[in-house]
Design goal:
Length: about 180
């Protein structure tokens, strides 16, 4: 009985020590992140398995193979390339910048006029037009999609006394007044 008790004690102490002793140091974690980032550029992606790229990278078709998705090629392999951030011009539609320095945005206190709400992105911070209030429960409207971008690719037919509508809230059929 005492051998069993000793053996269990050794296992419990060993597990406790390994749990704290086996964790990588902060320095080792930083090196691992750097290694992963170095290897992400040019890595294989896409193909039959749809292998994704690491965060911050996009899968671009490999121009050195005979598979071209623009010419009907399916399951083409690609290589991971760093995504380029959106160009910050300061004249983006609907945005009014208070600061174009994201580091300063955390320190600035500002309010937006009526009809505008605060925003913060990689280009800075400021006020943007308030998104429209969409009434998805309107009994005179039936939504096919609530995504205006998806609506551009959807074909649908409205029947009876209804007609199609497309707006910033989506698309669908509405009763003809």
């Amino acid at each position: 009985m005492s051998i069993r008790l000793m053996w269990c004690s050794v296992l419990v102490i060993g597990a406790a020590l390994c749990g704290t002793g086996c964790a990588p140091t902060a320095e080792a974690q930083q090196q691992e992140v750097g290694t992963r980032q170095q290897h992400a550029e040019g890595d294989f992606c896409g193909g039959f398995a749809g292998t994704p790229c690491s965060e911050g990278y996009a899968c671009i078709d490999d121009p050195n193979d005979s598979c071209d998705p623009d010419q009907g090629g399916a399951d083409c392999a690609g290589t991971c390339q760093r995504e380029t951030p959106a160009a910050c011009t300061g004249r983006e539609p609907g945005l009014k910048y208070v600061s174009r320095d994201p580091a300063q945005c955390a320190l600035i206190r500002y309010t937006c006029k009526e009809g505008y709400v605060p925003f913060s992105n990689e280009c800075g911070c400021g006020c943007q037009r308030q998104p429209p209030a969409c009434d998805y429960n309107d009994p005179n409207r039936t939504y096919v999609s609530r995504d205006p971008d998806a609506c551009a690719a959807i074909t649908f037919i409205c029947e009876g006394n209804t007609q199609g509508f497309f707006d910033e809230c989506g698309c669908g059929c509405e009763v003809i007044p």
